[in-house]
Model the fold of this input.
Amino acid sequence: MSEQPKDFPEFYVTTAQACPYLPERLERKLFTHLSPEKPDSLVDNLLKGGFRRSQNIAYVPYCEGCQACVSVRVLVDEFEPSKNFRRLIKRNSDLHIRRILPRSTAEHYRLFRDYIDARHGEGGMADMSIGDFALMIEDTIVDSFLTEYRLRPPNALEGGDMSSWPLLAVALCDRLSDGISMVYSFYDIEAERRSLGTFMVLEHIEYARRLALPYLYLGYWIEGSPKMAYKTRFQPQQRLTPGGWKLSDLKINP
Done:
């Protein structure tokens, strides 16, 4: 009997739990541990092939009788912002945007805590401590980064110490061989007029374009889940089907 290579992923299945997105349904996940021993190409292919990353675990939905979760990715080169999107980009032109290493701070955690308490107080992240948060940000073997969005004070100049500028939003992302995968983002819920969640997606589409990467991965769109409906606004996009990535035929007014 041949032995399984040590760098081959071992997969496990979680027990069934209440689905956080669709009422009266149960969810299970198929998952594998990511480790430095795994080839970079294997990890990259998992994340490009529908798996999502949480710390050093890659997972996909594995729910009996349900296929509502569908991986989606935006076609960067073909994306053109609508008039509404262009207005939103202009509205946020006073933000300073900085890419940094995935290192958590107390300032990040305070913003995250306010966001979770206001928007997802009953969700799985509601009880995350500052230590749990640090693991979410820092426990990664892939090429991850944070993007900070800070409000530039009137008459302030770029450069120097901008750490005192108000932090409005943060996005955790992974760089893949063919795109950027948005892992998690959070923002100041008091700045509702800025639509920061949407703006961060638009800004990362443009960042991927500058890097000559063809895709921005948005995770799972879930039919019937209002929380995930926003992902359909970024067209054209592809959805992962049993036959591979296929162009979505949904036409949504952005």
Summary: The longest helix spans residues 196-210. The CA atoms of residues 239 and 245 lie 5 Å apart.
